[in-house]
Amino acid sequence: xxxxxxxxxxxxxxxxxxxxxxxxxxxxxxxxxxxxxxxxxxxxxxxxxxxxxxxxxxxxxxxxxxxxxxxxxxxxxxxxxxxxxxxxxxxxxxxxxxxxxxxxxxxxxxxxxxxxxxxxxxxxxxxxxxxxxxxxxxxxxxxxxxxxxxxxxxxxxxxxxxxxxxxxxxxxxxxxxxxxxxxxxxxxxxxxxxxxxxxxxxxxxxxxxxxxxxxxxxxxxxxxxxxxxxxxxxxxxxxxxxxxxxxxxxxxxxxxxxxxxxxxxxxxxxxxxxxxxxxxxxxxxxxxxxxxxxxxxxxxxxxxxxxxxxxxxxxxxxxxxxxxxxxxxxxxxxxxxxxxxxxxxxxxxxxxxxxxxxxxxxxxxxxxxxxxxxxxxxxxxxxxxxxxxxxxxxxxxxxxxxxxxxxxxxxxxxxxxxxxxxxxxxxxxx
Amino acid sequence: xxxxxxxxxxxxxxxxxxxxxxxxxxxxxxxxxxxxxxxxxxxxxxxxxxxxxxxxxxxxxxxxxxxxxxxxxxxxxxxxxxxxxxxxxxxxxxxxxxxxxxxxxxxxxxxxxxxxxxxxxxxxxxxxxxxxxxxxxxxxxxxxxxxxxxxxxxxxxxxxxxxxxxxxxxxxxxxxxxxxxxxxxxxxxxxxxxxxxxxxxxxxxxxxxxxxxxxxxxxxxxxxxxxxxxxxxxxxxxxxxxxxxxxxxxxxxxxxxxxxxxxxxxxxxxxxxxxxxxxxxxxxxxxxxxxxxxxxxxxxxxx
Amino acid sequence: xxxxxxxxxxxxxxxxxxxxxxxxxxxxxxxxxxxxxxxxxxxxxxxxxxxxxxxxxxxxxxxxxxxxxxxxxxxxxxxxxxxxxxxxxxxxxxxxxxxxxxxxxxxxxxxxxxxxxxxxxxxxxxxxxxxxxxxxxxxxxxxxxxxxxxxxxxxxxxxxxxxxxxxxxxxxxxxxxxxxxxxxxxxxxxxxxxxxxxxxxxxxxxxxxxxxxxxxxxxxxxxxxxxxxxxxxxxxxxxxxxxxxxxxxxxxxxxxxxxxxxxxxxxxxxxxxxxxxxxxxxxxxxxxxxxxxxxxxxxxxxxxxxxxxxxx
Lengths: 430, 303, 312
Fold this sequence. Notes:
The structure holds 3 protein chains of 3 kinds.
Chain A: H1 2-16, E1 32-38, H2 42-51, E2 56-62, H3 71-82, E3 89-92, H4 98-101, H5 122-125, E4 137-138, E5 141-142, E6 144-146, E7 148-149, E8 152-157, H6 158-164, H7 172-185, H8 199-206, E9 214-216, E10 219-221, H9 227-241, H10 253-257, E11 264-268, H11 271-276, E12 289-292, E13 311-314, H12 321-333, E14 343-344, H13 347-359, H14 367-375, H15 389-402, H16 407-424, E15 428-429
Parallel strand pairs in A: 1-2, 1-3, 10-15
Antiparallel strand pairs in A: 3-13, 4-5, 6-13, 7-14, 8-11, 8-12, 9-10
Helix pairs in contact in A: 13-14, 15-16
Chain B: H1 17-46, H2 52-57, H3 66-78, H4 83-115, H5 121-133, H6 136-149, H7 157-164, H8 167-180, H9 183-191, H10 196-207, H11 209-224, H12 228-233, H13 241-249, H14 267-292
Chain C: H1 15-60, E1 62-63, E2 66-67, H2 71-78, H3 82-113, H4 117-128, H5 139-145, H6 154-159, H7 165-168, H8 174-199, H9 203-211, H10 216-227, H11 229-244, H12 248-256, H13 267-276, H14 281-305
Antiparallel strand pairs in C: 1-2
């Protein structure tokens, strides 16, 4: 019996050793690259494989580091420790990975290939929408390529606005005033939600040009008492109080139940598919909703926020840089699949995508101008450190609001939590 | 007829009020817990028949429609051309292979620890217990490094081998054999001339069916639900179902809002996928149930 | 009834010396078999248990390869998330262990007392099914079940004063919520184990007790539970260790609540963040070691009180 066991063990080992083609090692000899990506990017990969049959793509499907899974960072961390197993190209749905892929970690070279020092042509890099590469540019070097953009614009229900006879708000002050009017004349109708942790920081504070999430080199700072930050806080508290901004998640039952009472909502470009054209969301009818340029403070800069937008990274360990270059250029600029369903980050592809969306006629108003304006006016005073403002918001603000406090009450704790989180990942805090 | 602990009493004799109360209390407890365990599952069972909108707005236990069920099924099947089945098959292969190896290594080891004498027995027991208490997080990096050193990352063995290490099963077997069998019984057999292997095969193994069943399904289901190690060692098409479910989750807008709408999985499809993922475990449990009861009148029980 | 060798049956006189030789050769054979039987398991133990443990110890006391004394430990103790995590885990453990031990034993005893086979099997099956939903697959389930607006058990949640999902995720209630989730997935398995252990108790013992006039509770308390000592001790040791290593449930809730339950709720989660978010494997190992030591200290207690190492 013992001999049998030994034989089984030996057999297992013999099967293992030759049989492994580590899918994560690129072999320049057979012109292949290993790409980590998620299901939504599949069309891009398929289009590339069809257009470039000479390059073999080892596809590795994962979750794209969605939510807080940290897939990208976890696996690269392990690969670094093992000294092998890096892919050639990685897609991540998060846009703050440049903060760690650009650094040497635990003595291992930085994972990301610098793309702006000759790896890619300057003319190619210049083709991105202005500001699209801000999250991945550190000290003037570009570490990744933005796949899609998610700028915040102002969506409004044209039917209801016309029905009530209001003007479409252009500034945050207009927005608050509209809220007051609704609360008085049409209670039950509302103008937004902060139940999801991306809404507060990105849609309101970032668009409101509030310096609550800033990075200078390795020093993190957050100032909730800054005049702009205070303006946003007061705006939100005011509208929470009169019920025109709710605490319900936009994906929750309470929101969906009263979605026909939503008069307008500032939000990212992808609200288009996720909310308005979604049967389990707002479920709008064609022509009902319209897109308008983002709101700004009266006498303030015309800037807006951004909620997401994935990035492609190239590995500095790659053995096949030529194929990686071809891949990246294709996937970013290919008209059919660029942006993989969202607003492409490459200007030329974005224009075509916007034309296509506008021609469907689903939205009233000038969809293309609204989105393009938003896309090119994302405030560059926001930071992309190795942690997200959403965690602090969800930890401090969301439960605090639910127990009856105001954002004003919680702002100091929120700021402190963000600073604490910055410290544990290694930033200095001032 | 269900009877609770009163086989000798003729059923016509009335039970005392205290006994009635006790029995009623026991029944209430059983039913309450049955509901506790089952109601969320019933919800999950019904969820794939509803659209996301119905999930959010209709009554929780209301049935949806079969067309929605068909739609969700189709959505799952077309996700990456039936990737869910690849995941299930992967899980089945890894867990079955690991199960075989586990049984071959753990049952004899447990027997030896319980009923034989050798130097280092106590140490082995102690080390096994200590290792069982080590937090899983601490094990990931070293195991990853080991597997990477022998170039097994991405190979099914990267899941099968760690899955086959099952100290919980060894300890279970140890406790079982040390309580269910007496050394004297074995000694008698030995003195009568039986060799050690014969003692194991002829006396211990026939009595071991319950513990083999227990170890088998704890091992199988534990490995089936194991997420983190396969997540880092077997990405892509080799992933088992739990890792796959997490990938499906990342395509549900409610959990991953920034994902553009080209590949979306609805919550009800996710519910269906969850049910598909747990079905094999259910089947294994039903199958193993039969063997768990046979310890009832097995001989050699201690005085 | 145990079988003893009958002295009268052994061969006469010379048989005594013969049987001494026989005994020592039996002992040797036993030792050989014992060692052979644990050999393969020991290989696995070495590869996936001992080596990782030693590596973790090595990591905890070094930094980038150089000896670092206790600096890693100092760093984790000073982390602003450490004490809250300890508090969370502590509260959880109290609720979890108390509930688990009491309820598992009680339910197992009651189910075992049921005479009808299909009822007993059916109940065990029902109690066990949730165990299949341990882990990542249950995120969606809890997203709905714990949200009073859509939950099938909304009346329970409303009765507890919870009106929306965020309220259910408030940190002062979380230890109980997490314990309930852990119980839901874990109790069934232990009930099955206890049931099997109860089956091994001789029928005659129970009969004898009943004849002596003991009611079901007396029988349970004086006969069945003492005989389950080892199993209960095993359950307590593992559940305690599992409890200190709380990871899956808060992680699932963190995902389901989209961050309201923070990612650093438990100590094991903190270890995870250190390793994979902060790239600090040394700090992570330090936290894991602390968890291990705590689990060990209390396990030693139970091992000896429960007689886990005895072999009577």
